[in-house]
Amino acid sequence: MSQITIVGVDLAKNSFALVALDVHGKEVQRKTLRRKQWLTYLAQLPPCTVAMEACASAHHWARRLQALGHTPVLLPPQHVKAYQRGQKNDGNDARAVAEAQRHGAIRPVPIQTVAQQDARMFLNFRRQVLATRTRLVNQTRGVLAEYGIVVPRGIAALRRALPEILEDAENELSPAMRALLERQRQRLVELDAEVAWYDAQVKQRVQEEPACKRLLALPGVGPLVGLALKTWMGDGRQFDRGRAASAALGMVPRQHSTGGRSVLLGISKRGDPWVRALVIHGARAVVSRVAGKDDPLSRWIQRLVATRGFNKAVVALANKIVRMAWVVIARGEEYQPRTAA
Questions:
Q1: Measuring CA to CA, which residue among 23, 32, 31, 34 is closest to residue 1?
Q2: Most buried among 76, 111, 159, 329, by the most CB within 10 A?
Q3: Structure confidence by residue, pLDDT tens digits, 186-199
Q4: Are residues 182 and 290 in the same domain?
Q5: Same domain, 93 and 146
């Protein structure tokens, strides 16, 4: 049997499809193994490249494969789809992954450590708590409107209004409804406490991470934006320059050119939409307060606002922030803003 050089794996919860290619790209093995079997099978192979789509559990399996001496590679699923041939089944999916890796034109996804996954899950759980609190507030305001009680928008407004509404004996709320609203108020208090815990953890994690502390010097970057950028970018070594990092986050123009005619559209919006939104909101805060400042960055922003408009200036600054963040993270440099002459 020819020596196996690439193994393509189609990951699932319990069933794993594997396709092995030799040095010439010829398929030499095709197997479907259970969850407890596939690592045992790979442990018997000589060191080779094991390609997988960067989907659920992929980082865990990549770390396990590294321990076995193999070279795991995680490929973006949206790019692997172009290599799909024939009917849609697990074996053909694994074959597509193997051929995509053999082609070698797809930028792999960096394998995350346990600490990096912990940081990403921390931010995801924080977002979930915030979304739960927002849903609770919107639902409660809608219910109160059904009883003729209108509460202004905002969490703080409902937080102030609920005790007064519960104590008001002249409204139409029945004892049963008052009991339900009291439970909603208690849940809101609990969620407020949980959000406060997460916010305190964000500040603590930033102080414990040197790269995050350096990021705080960038314009428009606070503790949350800095932690999100560091978690998303990792060590930054997967990018050879800052522009590649901003392109991966969707901060560069989308191109639709043909026949020698270049057409540039709005930003591509690739990558993590939440991290991109955080950076843009930070940039918006800087641009909205740039009037009257005389440093080089502020003058550049003022020229953009005058010639391109406020929103385009915000996105341009966000692009620059990501590029500067890459220098701070990947090269370990300190941000040194230029002062007014």
A1: 23
A2: 329
A3: 999 999 999 999 99
A4: no
A5: no
**Are 133 and 184 in a shared domain?**
yes
Residues 6+ apart with CB under 8 A from 212: 205, 206, 223, 226, 227, 230
* Residue at token pair 């010639």: 307
Same domain, 71 and 180: no
Whether pTM > 0.90 for this model: the answer is no
Q: Which of 294, 336, 320 is nearest to 220 (CA)?
A: 320
Which range marks the domain in which residue 301 is found? 210-330
Here the contacts of 250-253 (C-beta below 8 Å, separation 24 or greater) are 250/276, 251/276, 251/279, 251/315, 251/318, 251/319, 251/322, 252/319
pLDDT, tens only, 313-339: 999 999 999 999 999 999 999 988 877
> Total domain count for the chain?
3
Question: Which residue carries 């060590």 as its tokens?
Answer: 235
Q: Which residue has the tokens 């057409």?
A: 263
Three-state SS sequence of 316-341: HHHHHHHHHHHHHHHCCCCCCCCCCC
Q: How many degrees, rounded to 5, is the angle at CA 246 between CA 244 and CA 251? A: 130
- How many Å apart are CA 268 and CA 61, to the nearest integer? 31
The answer on 68 and 119 residing in a single domain is no
The average pLDDT across 81-94 equals 89
Region 36-40: mean pLDDT is: 90
> Which two three-digit tokens encode residue 186?
């208690």
| Rg of the chain on CA atoms, in Å | 26
CATH of the domain at 10: 3.30.420.140
Q: How many angstroms separate the CA atoms of 169 and 173, rounded?
A: 8
Q: Which residues pair with 264 in a beta bridge?
A: 255
Residue with the two structure tokens 């090269």: 331
Q: pLDDT confidence of 255, banded at 50, 70, 90?
A: confident
Q: Are 80 and 100 in contact, with CB atoms under 8 Å apart? A: yes
